[in-house]
Specification:
Layout: H1 2-26, E1 35-40, H2 46-62, E2 65-70, H3 75-87, E3 92-95, H4 104-112, E4 117-120, E5 131-135, H5 137-152, E6 155-161, H6 167-181, E7 186-193, H7 198-211, E8 217-220, H8 223-233, E9 242-244, H9 250-258, E10 263-266, H10 269-284, E11 292-295, E12 298-301
Length: 309
Amino acid sequence: MRTRATTLLVVLILAVLAALVVGCQRGGEGEGGQRIGLSVSTLNNPFFVSLRDGAQEAADEAGVELVISDAQNDTAQQQDDVQNFISQQVSAILVNPVDSDAVVPAVEAANDAGIPVIALDRKASGGEVATTIASNNVQGGRMDGEELIRLVGSGNVAQLEGISGTDPARDRGQGFQEAIDAQNSIEVAASQTAKFDRAEGLNVTENILQANPDIKGIFAQNDEMALGAVQALGDQAGDEVKLVGFDGSEDALNAIQDGTMNATIAQQPDKIGSAGVENAMSVIEGESVEENVPVEVNLVTSDNVSDFL
């Protein structure tokens, strides 16, 4: 009996010690064990990697655990990721939607569970979202359009569109079209989706050039597609064919410095991520937040690119 009791006592002590070790390994949970879920549309894009890093830095500073999932541009995967956050009973969910419409059931599920949701970079078309933190994409698209018009002067241009159903694609396209509509020297000869992807940008640009060999400029709704267009254009990139992008990624800034791209709109994805965590903490603590939190954008050209590198 004594041996058995001793064994049970040892097992109990080991279990307690194991629990303590697990608690230490979780770290970053901070006071009250707060955890925040972050569902990113894809980490196969430098923009969203920077967004994640900004969120992680803010979470570390706040002493909370950030649980990160990569939806890999799959709406069904994002639904599962958010459901997992709900099952884990996180304190708040940050979601960067793959698709603004498709994410609605996930948002509503979090609402039903009483977990606040914050949208990053892209809006959710429905459900209750505490705040949406994003760049002013309409303004950025307009700035890009005006710069492309200035660069080209007259003739035909093309547009590489992002993922259909996302508000960045819609809003950037809207701003670009506003710039086009305000003048009559430039016409958009082709506009096709390349899904915010570099390889797609290469393929779609090649197809556009075959059908429209007189293209003098291209507006890409993100830098990844613009960099794909650089590959398709070869020696023409930035010279015979002017090229403007959107995001301000490091690769795009280097391309502007090299002269193969002419301009981009610099977003601040790290600030979008950090603002997401900061606003999540405010909501968790019962404080009110703004319905929309805009993050400033800037036009980057060869004249000022060194300021952003």
